[in-house]
Design goal:
It is built from three helices and three strands. Strands 1-2-3 form a three-stranded parallel beta sheet, with helices on one face. α2 links the parallel β2 and β3. α1 runs parallel beside α2. The protein is globular, with a radius of gyration of 12 Å. The chain starts with a strand and ends with a helix.
Length: 78
């Protein structure tokens, strides 16, 4: 069974990179889509991280919070 994965991020792109690296190293065969919601200003470090992985980025408005991010991501999950 393939699954969709949702991840929230808020400016800690170093930790996002580690999370995505581990996710794709150990779980690639079960993944359908991976969505990453960024809840801070889009900057070069975020773009550099998401370009390394097959993810679908979702850019929120600045600092809406994790509950809002999860609600937005869950709209996309099949």
């Amino acid at each position: 069974m393939k699954i969709d994965c949702i991840i929230t991020s808020a400016g800690r792109h170093d930790l996002l990179d580690k999370t995505l690296e581990s996710l794709f190293k150990y779980n690639i065969e079960n993944l359908n889509r991976v969505y990453v919601y960024e809840d801070s200003d889009q900057d070069d470090s975020f773009c550099e991280v998401i370009e390394k992985y097959p993810v679908i980025p979702i850019f929120g408005t600045k600092n809406m919070g994790q509950i809002h991010a999860i609600d937005e991501l869950m709209k996309r999950v099949e």
